Amino acid sequence: MGRDAGQGTSRTREADAGQTGRNIQARRLPQRRRSVPVQDSLGRGLVDLRISVTDRCNLRCPYCMPKELFGPDHAYLARSDLLSFEELARVARVFADLGVRKIRLTGGEPLLRRDLEHLVEKLASIDGIEDIAMTTNGMLLAAKARRLADAGLNRVTVSLDSLDDEVFAKMNGTGAAVARVLAGIDAAESSGLSPIKVNCVVKRNVNESSILEMARHFHGTGHILRFIEYMDVGTTNGWRLADVVPAGEILSLVDTELPLAPIDDEHRSGVATRYRYRDGGGEIGVIASVTSPFCATCTRARLSAEGMLFTCLFASDGFDLKTPVRSGATSRELERTILDIWARRADRYSEIRSACPAVIHGETTTGDSVSEHGRDVPCAGQAPPPTAVVLGHPRREMSYLGG
Ligand code: SAM
Ligand code: SF4
Ligand code: SF4
Question: How far is the CA of 176 from the centre of ligand 2 (A)?
Fold first, then answer.
């Protein structure tokens, strides 16, 4: 019932919106944009916006926010630096006018942002936004799922790296219990936040032993389990290639017990490669950012909680949108700023990492080169400006720019 109520609110608003000249103009914008698609310098559209609503988290997954480096004295963003819900919705509206159809709320842990449902409600009323999702560690989800669904949230992705409390504790750095996350998943299901995806980062010799148990547990539930290769995001997790369990290895393991068949995903734009269980038990996926990069189809923009726009998960730097938002820029001006940033976007970090791992990890020798736009460029140089990924510069943390 709550779900219908949420959708009803948003539908009613759209109907109301059609009554005024201002909103009639707003409704025409997506059509105008469709005829001239927004594209970056590599021909990739601008389809999804990930909004990080906070850089704080209640867990300390060592692969993301190791507790030794994110201790009590860590300098998080000040409250006055965070974009307000009104400011976030305003920026999201500009993205929607540029053709963005999907928004994902993330962080840090998005459920730490107080009254998040108020933001969801604002986003759900934006003309053109078809899908609002959230990635969460699930710790606070049981208490919040219904309110979020009522506000217009469509789906959730819940992160869970093991069903074994001991292993999960190693992966989350705090001792948080599996049962709490499972309760969050149950609440999301009963609130209609489906299909629910479950993200499981796999780290060699830490939670490899959980792969089959996770597959068995979610097989036949309708939830979509996705195994994620451990990535070299940020600079604090001490990433080593040796800690990555390749997606191919994960799939082979699952396939031995629960036979899989690839799903023909002709129009793939998501990050996961999808498989179905041959026995009809549903679907799983792998996110193989390390062994099989998908930069060619990457249509995601990221907005940090303080209003910096990032064009790649591995960016060293973003583009400040907070200053124009707070100094009275018109929506048209913001639109032009974003268009300009996106038009020059050339990021393809994971592809470059695959082609030339040495350059990424500062072990470059002058003889190394990487194929860039069909020509060989020296690894030791920077990626073509003004890409946000500046090779050799420290990358921003995923908890800050939004996973
Ligand atoms: N706190 C929320 C959560 O954990 O779901 C949302 C933010 S988190 C940064 C988003 C996703 O990124 C999670 O599924 C998490 O497991 C994943 N992630 C974080 N660090 C990662 C890494 N080094 N490699 C692969 N995935 C990572
Ligand atoms: Fe927190 Fe999510 Fe990062 Fe884990 S992965 S530390 S839950 S932001
Ligand atoms: Fe997109 Fe950057 Fe990831 Fe490539 S490395 S898929 S461009 S976020």
Answer: 12
**Strand 197-202 to 155-159 pairing:** parallel
> How far is the centre of ligand 3, averaged over its atoms, from the C-alpha of 346 (Å)?
10
Q: For 355-366, what is each residue's pLDDT tens digit?
A: 765 555 544 434
Q: Is 310 in the pocket of ligand 3 (CB under 6 A)?
A: no
Number of H helices, E strands in the chain: 14, 14
Residue with tokens 């992160």: 159
Query: Is the entire prediction scored with pTM above 0.90?
Result: no
| 36: three-class secondary structure by DSSP | coil
* Identity at 77, one-letter amino acid code: L
Within 13 Å, how many C-alpha atoms sit on residue 110's CB side? Answer: 32
Domains and CATH numbers, the chain: 20-302 (3.20.20.70), 352-386 (no CATH)
Which one-letter amino acid corresponds to residue 75? Answer: A
Q: How far apart are CA 312 and CA 102, in angstroms?
A: 17
Under 8 Å between Cβ of 48 and 300: yes
Ligand 1, atom 2: nearest CA belongs to which residue? 136
Residues 53/305, Cβ–Cβ less than 8 Å: yes
The answer to whether residues 273 and 288 touch, using CB atoms and an 8 Å cutoff, is: yes
Q: How many CB atoms lie within 10 A of CB 85?
A: 18
Rounded CA-CA distance 403/52 in Å is 8
| Spatial contact of 44 and 298, defined as CB atoms under 8 Å apart | yes
What's the rounded mean pLDDT across residues 195-218? 98
Task: For residue 294, give both structure tokens.
Answer: 């998908």
Residue whose CA is at the smallest distance from ligand 2 atom 3: 64
